[in-house]
């Protein structure tokens, strides 16, 4: 796909992965709709980029809010790229120190936030893409979801998060099969540990040293720009479809995550 003619929607566009992807797609010539719950973060990215970057305050867990962001994107031109990269919290350990069970809501909430909201964006974006004229190869669009290597080797305390991310990985192929007749591809990125605002205010040098130690090579955390680089490649390479790509420097989580 030629990104220069594309409209892209990025959920979590004010965050680490989302912000880097917005900047990269915009630099490649796309018009980008930045969807984020956090107005300050989303507007900062939109203001930095100026023309061709629009912020729409969006709660990805709210169906109407997502619908209105997608309408905005489709109003700018043919929606071709949807990147789902919003963040949020996982759940606790299954039993606490006194062996009391975690509240059931601590499981269902991350499932709704990560898995349910991803499907909601995917289905609504796909409907908007399906209304566009096909490009070369009959392609109409591409959906890029974000899982995690926790989908494969979830750590202590990650039952809900791993289930949500595993769900995103599991639905990648059936979504690609569902959407193939209208020329929409679906690819998922499963990142390892990346230096993004999701890690809070901790010192980046210390974070890199701690989390990077477990990564075989390169011995550091990933950079959001490396996620964005892969997202751009997925958008451009029409033969990538129905697959989850690990982006992790060969990291495999131990039970506690680090090395
Ligand atoms: N950083 C990592 O190491 C890492 C590794 C694997 C997977 N991931 C996944 O990648 C995704 C993005 O992570 P990140 O590191 O860029 O996080 P981030 O915290 O830097 O950015 C997430 C963005 O999502 C926004 N957001 C949160 N809730 C929202 C909602 N309800 N509606 C709309 N926007 C909302 C936040 O305001 C923020 O701007 C997450 O799904 C995360 O689980 C991250």
UniProtKB/TrEMBL annotation:
- Can the keyword Oxidoreductase be found in this entry's annotation? yes
Please name the PANTHER family in this protein's record: 17-BETA-HYDROXYSTEROID DEHYDROGENASE 14-RELATED, SHORT-CHAIN DEHYDROGENASE/REDUCTASE
Q: Which family does it belong to?
A: Belongs to the short-chain dehydrogenases/reductases (SDR) family.
One Pfam assignment: adh_short
User: What name does the UniProt record give this protein?
Assistant: NAD(P)-dependent dehydrogenase (Short-subunit alcohol dehydrogenase family)
Keyword Cell membrane among record annotations: no
InterPro entries with a match to the protein in the record: NAD(P)-bd_dom_sf (IPR036291), Sc_DH/Rdtase_CS (IPR020904), SDR_fam (IPR002347)
Q: Which UniProt keywords apply?
A: Oxidoreductase
**GO molecular-function terms, A-Z:** oxidoreductase activity
């Amino acid at each position: 796909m030629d990104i220069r003619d594309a409209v892209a929607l990025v959920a979590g566009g004010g965050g680490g992965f989302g912000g880097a992807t917005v900047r990269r797609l915009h630099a490649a010539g796309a018009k980008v709709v930045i969807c984020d719950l956090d107005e300050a973060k989303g507007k900062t990215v939109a203001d930095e980029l100026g023309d061709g970057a629009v912020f729409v305050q969006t709660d990805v867990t709210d169906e109407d809010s997502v619908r209105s962001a997608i309408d905005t994107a489709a109003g700018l031109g043919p929606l071709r790229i949807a990147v789902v990269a919003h963040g949020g919290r996982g759940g606790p350990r299954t039993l606490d120190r006194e062996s009391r069970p975690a509240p059931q809501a601590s499981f269902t909430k991350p499932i709704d936030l990560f898995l349910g909201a991803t499907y909601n964006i995917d289905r609504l974006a796909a409907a908007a893409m399906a209304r566009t004229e096909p490009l070369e190869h009959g392609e109409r669009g591409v959906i890029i979801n974000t899982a995690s290597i926790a989908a494969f080797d979830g750590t202590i305390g990650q039952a809900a998060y791993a289930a949500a991310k595993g769900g995103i990985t599991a639905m990648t192929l059936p979504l690609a099969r569902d959407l193939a007749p209208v020329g929409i591809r679906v690819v998922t990125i499963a990142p390892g540990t990346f230096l993004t605002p999701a890690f809070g205010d901790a010192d980046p040098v210390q974070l890199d040293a701690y989390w990077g130690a477990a990564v075989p090579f390169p011995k550091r955390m990933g950079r959001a720009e490396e996620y964005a680089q892969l997202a751009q490649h997925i958008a451009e390479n029409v033969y990538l479809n129905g697959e989850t790509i690990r982006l992790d420097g060969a990291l495999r989580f131990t039970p506690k995550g680090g090395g």
